[in-house]
Sequence to fold (792 residues):
Amino acid sequence: MAAAMRGFGFVKSVFQLSGNVMGLRCPCRFPKQCQQLFVCENNKLSSIRAYCISPGEKEHCNIGTIGHVDHGKTTLTAAITKILSENSTDTKFYDFNSIDRSPEEQRRGITIYATHVSYQTKKRHYAHTDCPGHLDFIKNMITGTSQMDGAILVVAANDGTMPQTREHLLLARQLGLQRVVVFLNKADIVDDEILELVEIEVRELLAEYGFDADSTPVICGSAKNALEDIDCKFGAPSILKLAEAVDNYIEVPNRDLAAPFYLPVESSVSVPGRGTVLVGTLKQGTIKKGSEAQLLGYDVKIKTAASEVQIFRKPVNEGKAGENMGVLVKGVKNDIVKRGMALVAPGSFKVTNWVEAQIYILTRDEGGRSKPIMDGYSQDMFVSTWTMGGMLFLKDDVQMIMPGDTTKVNILLRKSMVIKEGQKFTVRENDVTVISGIITDVLDSSNTEITGFNVQPKAQLRVETNSRVYANKRKK
Amino acid sequence: MLSGYNKIRFMRTVAQNARLFCVQPNKQVAVDKALLSKLRKKTGYPMINCKKALVQFDNDIKEAETWMREQAQKEGWEKAGKLQDRPMSQGLVGLIEDDTSVTVVEVNCETDFVAKNENFQALVSQIVKACHKHTPQSDNGKVLLDNNEINSMKDEDVTLSDKVALLVGKLGENIAIRRAASISKDSSTVVSSFVHASGPPMVKDGIKLGKFAAITKVEIPDVDGIAKELCQHIVGMNPTEMGEWRPKPIDKKELKKKKKEKEENKSRPEDKVEQRLLDQEFLLDSQFTVRSYLHDNAPKVEDFVRMECGEDLGED
Fold:
């Protein structure tokens, strides 16, 4: 019976209450907070004891730890999950060994691979990234699903800042982080004077790299003390203080509804006598019935208006970001519309065929390429809903890109598309993903013409008897 | 019984002693903060060591500094000993070129943060220079050195291993010299090199730094810088052996036989990556194999060396 109930799909956990009375947990996203039970007798959903009231969704924030190898990034991560799991039920405690999982990592006591853990404070839900190296962070930025919103810089108080701390801050800049929180670890083994000096030192360095040094919170503590339940001000209280500082200081970008609307078209249906309905999920903004719009993509630019907005076949006055909808547009023929076009607020988005991107070439071990990529490499690019041929142009001082490298390149698209900064894409060769990238800059359209790529050589016509016109075959 | 005078004297001594006892711990705490921060800025050694030094020399910054510099070497070795088991997959290769030869050295570290650090890059360039200076001669012009040989080389009376240990103490990360190779020039050949850095090219004191490097020795004439192109090809395509300059003519009968055998076995041959340089498809012009490209352009490849930072050499 339990199996049958699991067959519902949405039911995750089924357990026996008594005899043939079964209970099932509410299938909402908050299994630990939501204690609602559905009770089942004799194979029938007989009664619902309570209704699920989902707790208000918390803000989500992506964060990471950066710092020197021995300064205790992983210990801090473990300590955060431990202290927060004691204070609320939403967080699971990850001990050191479950973060550094591989046998090699455990034997040597250091982190080699990137890990992701999650925890919750009262205010937010966090996804935490713990990476050992520079390239790992960049890779995470390019290939990961989420952009990092902030970072915790870990500095051991007994060592002070290391020469490579500069490189850490440089990385934070490269990831586009505006704010970091500093945690001075191992504060229990030095005295107050040294703590003070290290703090000054860190602030100087922060200022040097363009962070707001005065308002950056610096928290002194000891992750090890917190992890080992040693009762002192550098133990659990310092971790809570850190969590609070991160809550208050790190900002989450507003994904608000006031932005100009952007609807990537997934499919379209022609309604005879009325126009064409574009179907897709609104990515940002609000689309109102009757508002003006532009249909862009594949070198096409059409001015139109959203004469009707439907959500699940019900006409509505407006549709908001995140909703799947159909939009009836005037004066657009169905055969022009292609998957990958975008319906946007007029003048709010650029169409271009020339962008700058940061790319990562997957190595052979990761299922990528073994050969390097040269200037003029062209292949199909897969970006959100569309696919388009793209040609890579290397920067002047780069001769080639080896697998495992990450670098900035310019990309020429075969046709102009709507493309946004921060959009991710992949490039595949047959069934192998070779490049993963993120758009860093949308530039003005380029009029570079490359025969065979974005320009087809004109076929020559010849006239034969009976005034028939033939096209000569294109020479190879 | 003590006389009155003696009693007073005794008490004074006690008092003096007591003062001495009191002063000692007070003195330890009273490290001048400004001095501490100055010393730390000047030397860059760990905060806690700076304090120790100042306490020891009673806030005399000069003595503290000299003492710390002496200690640094020892501490570097201690730290290096502690860290020597940690794995290193990052680092740099450094390449130097002059009129007589080309030398390339690989130095490893633990994270790429350190590889980007100035201190580390300065160390690599020092090592490359010393190595270039002290590389022994050989008959065929190619020398391969392992880490022990390089570690014992001296630069300005300091062994290279001492220099490495000093930086280990400073950066707190395992660092080690791995290997070196050198190819010398002679009148009938051209020696060319190529270094690939993962980001923008890095040059320090005329030494090219990067993640990959290749040196080739090509017979004269070097048409249109073909040796350079070949170096780039070697970095990109990772050949492990040279291959035959003049391959054996293919016997048609044997080919048929092989075909038949394959059909009988019916197992799909695995995608084999071509390891022989001359049989590889040329990177800069994929219509040709390297052999046919070179045959058209005359020079013959004598020798090559490729180095990839952190690559697996099949050792422990």
User: Anything to note?
Assistant: Confidence is low (pLDDT under 50) at residues 12-29 of chain B. The domain at 90-254+273-308 of chain B is CATH 3.30.479.20 (Tetrahydropterin Synthase; Chain A). The first strand of chain B starts at residue 90 and ends at 97.
